[in-house]
Amino acid sequence: MERPIPRRVVLAILCAAGAHALSAPAQRVAAPTPATPAPATRRVARLDKPIRLPVWPVVNGLACIALDLVGLGDAAAALEERFGGRVAPMSLGPDANPFVLLVHHRHGFDCWDPVRPVFEKLIVPEGFPAHPHRGFETVTMTLRGGLAHRDSAGVKRGSTRERNSQLQRLRSRPVSTRVKETYGDGDVQWLTAGKGILHEEMWHWADKSRRGECELYQLWVNLPAALSMSKPATEVLRAADLATVAGDGVLETDLGGALTPDGAIRAPGAAREDVLLRKVELAPGASYARDVPADATALLYTRRGAVSVGGDAVPRHTLAYTERGAGSLRVTNDGDAPAEILLLVGMPIREPVVSSGTWVVSSEAELARANADYGAGLLGRPWDHTISDGEWEEWNRKYGI
Questions:
Q1: Is the CB of residue 271 less than 8 Å from the CB of residue 258?
Q2: Are the C-beta atoms of residues 327 and 294 closer than 8 Å to each other?
Q3: CB burial class (10 A; 0-12, 13-18, 19+) of residue 325?
Q4: Less CB within 10 Å around the terminal CB: N or C of the chain?
Q5: Letter string b/e over residues 119-144, b meaning 16 or more CB atoms within 10 A of that residue's CB
Q6: What is the pLDDT of residues 227-280, one digit of tens each?
């Protein structure tokens, strides 16, 4: 018998998707037009300071908000860094194409917290129970702690997707099996929703008898219409295998993507040729430079410290959109403390976008079809997040895809 999704599960999913999932009507985004040539080094086009919502633990999140309200932003950031308690959803605009949504999570889970069991039972479970996606890819970049993943495809990882030689060494392809998969502490999961999948992501850390420290980014990346109905697949890039480049006070970590000169995507997944995702750590006074296509989207989010882009300041916990037209990007840590940024570079997909809730498709008709297919169980049927792995395996045998 199909288990209905309770209201608190819906709240958890909305928390994951933030403002994007809360939008009532479908968002219609026109593809950006190429910019005219500009100076050689990019400047900041605009800054977004995302709202930071209190959750896991909610009490600490509320304390951070109170500190922000009285002008003690540095203290709030330090409290969040140390103990967690907030999530920052960033619903990205048309000038972020092909990127749709970015969320920064920082959470802590204490065994002694008296509010925690009440909050989990009555408000929001500790994670994101089974929910659907179609038409795009999610990239989950863990920093500490991680997630336990189950999906309606049974975590089938034996994809026949052609491999890109640059990332071939990063890919592990065990025999397809229906198992729960955990990842964290620097691992990166690429999930191709494609024609449709349900997945569950619950917070996970190694020792459940001790405090759980969890921090990650989740990014939604659109797919062109020709690939939007690809076969669903997951792949995990393990932290130990991620390529790094170090030098002159800069450490760059490759989180996936292989942006080629023509920027044409030929296949989805971590080797897709139209995006580039990097984590960059900068010592005080250090600078990081990268060539980017003149018409590419280039965004950066400051996790720690404050930096400048082409001389324009980007404070901590801020998302910077850079101007198109220039062929290079230069980021400098002008402060006296280490800084860390997430860099997102991608070629715009010059096609219509219709996004609503957990769907990203190309037309109103496709949106209606996605909802109808989900209702008919064609993406699998949602399961209760509290069932055991054995029960989940049986559920997937009956109702999975």
A1: yes
A2: yes
A3: middle
A4: N
A5: bbeeebbbbbbbbbbbbbbbbbbbbb
A6: 999 999 999 999 999 999 999 999 999 999 989 888 889 999 999 999 999 999
